[in-house]
Design brief:
single chain, 167 residues, 3 strands, mainly alpha
Length: 167
Amino acid sequence: MITINIIGFEFLATEDFHTVFHLREDKEKDLVLTEVLEIHFLNMVKWRKLDRKDIANEPLHRWLTWFDENSPPELVAEVVKMDTAIKLAEEKQVHVLSDEAAERAYEMRQRAIWDWNTTEKLARMEGRAEGIAQTNLEIARKMKNAGKSFNEIAEFTGLSLELIENL
């Protein structure tokens, strides 16, 4: 079984855009569970940074050019002409997108992904803001206990004088 994961974020601390993993025994590193299972990660961020993409000789470079939403349309058309498997995939994609129900399902999935990412980003931002607020409260308490003036505490923490007074 082979899994291919196309990712659009920094994931592994390696310079290569393509990494492959196999399952190995923890203690006996040379003991591979099976050669049949491979897990591939294709990092589009690193792929896009490549200086030279060899679509003429490297099938993987052709596929990633086709998958990459940032690839110029004329380059994608060239890749489709060069590779019969990509041409077949392109034809299937056109067929699927011509089916209104399939296209609607695809769009709904895209919206769900965007919603999820937005919600996650907002949650992180709220978490950071809450963490900063908690840190500022802790600093204000310590400064107040150390005898600092309320104005000085407010200047360093951004907290209101009323809030500092009630700590």
